[in-house]
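SUBJECT: A protein chain and its fold
Encoding: whole-number codes for local backbone shapes
RECORD BEGINS BELOW THIS LINE
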Amino acid sequence: MNGIAALGRLAWLDDLVLGVRLSVSGGRSGWLRLTLITAGVGLGVGMLLVLAATPTAVSAREQRRADRALGASAEQAGPGTLLSQTTQTQFHDEVIRGRILRPEGDRAPAPPGISRLPAAGEMFVSPALAVLLDGPGGEVLRERWSARVAGVITPPGLSGPDEVYFYLGSDTLTTEDGAARAASFGGGGTPTADATIVILAVIGTAIMVLPVLVFVTTAVRFGSASRERQLAAIRLVGADSRMTHRIAAGDALIGALLGLGVGGLVFLVLRGTVGGLLPADFSPYAADLRPVPALLALILMAVPTGAVLATLSALRRVVIEPLGVVRQSGVRRRRLWWRLIPPGIGVALLYPLLGGLTGDVGDGTRGQLAAGAILLLAGVVVLLPWLVQAVVRHLGGGSVAWQLGIRRLQLDSDAAVRSVSGIAVSVAGLIAVQALLATSIAATSGTQPPADRFQAVVYTNGADGKGWGAALTGTEGVEEVRTAGYGYLRATPQNEIGVSVRVGDCDALRQFAPLPSCTEGDSFRAVMPGWESPTLPSGTVAAFHGVDDKAPVPRWKVPADLHTVTLYSSESAPMSFLATPAALGVRPDLRGLETDAYLMRLDRADPDAIERVRTTMTRLDPAAPLQLFADRRIGDQLADGRQVAQGCAVLLLLFIGASMLVNVTEQLRERRRLLAVLAAFGTRRRTLSASVLYQVAVPAAVGLLLAVLIGSSLSAVLLAVTQAPITFDWPAIATMTATVAAMVLAVTAAGLPLLFRLLRAPELRNE
């Protein structure tokens, strides 16, 4: 009995091997089918490997950032301590970050990426910063530090290959300058992730994974008709139905295994190009893109297993007899009820999060968010077959090409639906991502200070700004410097903290909030979204503190008809009131007042004026915040995230276009005899071309409509989760939909040369 069982297992293995042999040595037709399957699975596996490598790349980047962060603070100076001050500046559109270092002993540690600490007047720079220093305008940037470049920071000290970073040596840095003292590096913790960033990452992963999985399961069905005819011939020589299923499994298995190899090559190619699509803060080293071992093992097991299961599932509706293949005909009415379950569960998971995410987003919340979003997007895949069938069932009439295309969809729409379901999922996800980005960008770009009077402002941020006004006035390209100050209103002597008030003339105050009108003597109540502003009721008499202690303390009665204005987002602390000097009874030149803002009017004909201002501030106080009015950086705070989304969208559209082209090619080859018969009976090429276009365009139109509906719903949910106003950018949605529709038409048109070749008389021959 054991011998019989062993023979049964060997027979099962022999059937698989036979399927592999038939696939590899099946002649021109078999090789073409194997090539299509391998290419399709390879494209999908390459994308899956890139996604599986993303956590490793992010972890490596964050680990390097943590390794270069300062360790535990030291209270006393010693031979092994150093002072460090983090600084940030900007050169044109490039943000430059770095550290100013001063050793306090001969055993002070060096940060990762450099072999020693830079001496005073020396600096170590990243390769990207070295390119900027040697590039156009580099002489202006070199004046900012007046330091000699002593070396280049190696990869262990950088978050990525394109990061613009430096270490600058100093012999004057002190703790009074805001420097921190430490004896080691490597004390950085994991930063708290913003809720919007978490959601963008989750949705971005979902819209990348789902289309890939859809296409991989579709790719293993390429050439199914010719394979079924081959299996019928095998049945003619004595094989039973179970044996043919095992042979088909072997045929699919070799295609999946070869696809894994091709996918590895695709991954190696993508690994070298992905960084160019991402901004500097996100670009990874190629060595960092290593698939997570668990995810790699899952891909290696899931792809061959899924290929076999998809093949066996496709054979369920096919009866393979010794004399031919019989497909179970008749229109199957697809059921709707179970297709509503995945999106329904997704909505149920997302509903408790509608109140908004605050603080650190834990793993449980991330999992709930990911599961809800993925299930809602998966609703596109499960609902699309039912919806296409429901739509084409009521279509008819029209031209010959229309009738040919629609009748084909009415008889069997599975292949057409599979080819567009990945597109529909992608569009739905991209709509959700676009809504989040557009809302976040609009929240900042719509509230920028005007740049017609002043173009920049520098804040003391608590530092002593003595001499700043003169230094900025003497900077080349600065035409005027105006100051603004602050103080506190105390209603009673017991109120020691007081309510803050910004003081300046009307021109200065307009840089902090949009004013309805302003003349000397006016004052305004100020609010800022997301900030609970302490205030004083109308009619309250308050003492204004903020002038020289020797001067008399002015009294101010809060007017009853005070206008309320909304503060611009800026580097300064929010204020409860804005007031002109005459309103509070202080000197027009603000003498004696705490001056914390220096507003500058720059020479518009000098493009390097702002760069010289940055150079001046680097020498005065590298940590002082500098804001450029009407700067794109303010309106595009999520520009890096948008560039990441654009890079992913480019990869996704390229993948979808390639997969659709392979899919269209496979469908045309499967129907070559039918197409040749129609051509032999006099059907014009234009008619057949139009019918092929209708077979793709109708499911694509239905899929895009469903994608817009579900994508808009998901974007509304996600905007509610991030506590943002629910708005839809319909022009952007229309542009995206039109772009995808144009891609579908272009891919279909790319398959027409093959269609014309298949219309020739030799294609009438049958095996």
Summary: The mean pLDDT is 79. The two ends are 42 Å apart (CA to CA). The CA atoms of residues 204 and 645 lie 7 Å apart. The chain is about 50% helix and 15% strand.
